[in-house]
TrEMBL record:
Gene Ontology molecular function: any one: transferase activity
Annotated organism of origin: Halomonas lysinitropha
Protein name, as recorded: Glutamine amidotransferase
Keyword Transferase: yes
A Pfam family assignment: GATase
Segments crossing the lipid bilayer: none
Residue ranges constituting the Glutamine amidotransferase domain according to the UniProt record: 17-176
Organism ancestry: Bacteria, Pseudomonadati, Pseudomonadota, Gammaproteobacteria, Oceanospirillales
Keywords: Glutamine amidotransferase, Transferase
GO CC terms in record: cytosol
InterPro entries xrefs: ChyE-like (IPR044992), Class_I_gatase-like (IPR029062), GATASE (IPR017926)
């Protein structure tokens, strides 16, 4: 398979997703619409991944490149393409499906427990720890199934159209290097200094095994995501 990835910041890349795609024999191309690149043609790829990006407004007046990205997401939703969004990408997908996207009550950064939703079709443990970096949240789109929740965020993700479309608020793709890049170059989500659900740098990086434990979770999620479409 060949996968298109949309990246919105030099410091919020595919991280472990790129390694997983290569290990499974899939090729991929990364596009930077925010830097003036043209959107990819969906017909030239087999799936689309929309990565994390800036917090805050989704207004096209502030980010004119969003017009083309929204169009591409709608094409993927309507064209039976596998579609995965993470963070900012999941917000765009939720918005395209008619769900409310808004600022959450508190920022959520660092490592937090996710409880899988009772009806979640995703093959993940009932509870697991994932990396967070957000203040913005989204509601559950119509006809979607909730993935799970954390203490600060009632919805940590969703699936839609029998698993063909997946939106994740949490980050299963995070690595120690990708988190360092965030901390070194990206401003923390609004309200992080006063949030009870925001960790400091030391807490985020103190245990490298946390990142190792994310790897099999990402593998299970991506394998099920692509397999569900191939089996359809």
């Amino acid at each position: 398979m060949h996968v298109h990835l949309l990246q919105h910041s030099p410091h919020q890349g595919p991280a472990r997703i790129a390694d997983w795609l290569a290990s499974m024999g899939h090729s991929h191309t990364v596009f930077h619409l925010d830097a003036g690149e043209l959107p990819p043609r969906l017909a030239d790829g087999d799936a689309l991944i929309v990565l994390d990006g800036p917090e805050g407004s989704l207004e096209t007046e502030r980010c004119p490149w969003l017009r083309g990205e929204r169009k591409l997401i709608l094409q993927a939703l309507n064209g039976n393409k596998p579609l995965l969004g993470i963070g900012f990408g999941a917000r765009l997908i939720a918005e395209a499906l008619g769900a409310v996207v808004a600022r959450g009550s508190v920022a959520e950064t660092g490592w937090h427990r996710v409880d899988l939703a009772p009806l979640s079709p995703v093959d993940l443990p009932d509870t697991f720890e994932a990396f967070m970096w957000h203040r913005e949240v989204f509601a559950l789109p119509d006809y979607a199934l909730a993935l799970g929740r954390s203490e600060a965020s009632p919805l940590q993700g969703f699936t839609w159209d029998d698993g063909r479309v997946v939106g994740l608020l949490c980050h299963l793709e995070a690595t120690a290097d990708s988190v360092r890049a965030l901390l070194d170059h990206q401003a923390p989500p609004e309200g992080s200094p006063t949030s009870p659900h925001a960790q400091d740098r030391a807490a985020m990086l103190d245990d490298p095994r946390r990142f190792d434990r994310l790897a099999p979770l990402l593998d299970r999620l991506l394998s099920q995501w692509l397999h569900s479409t191939a089996a359809a």
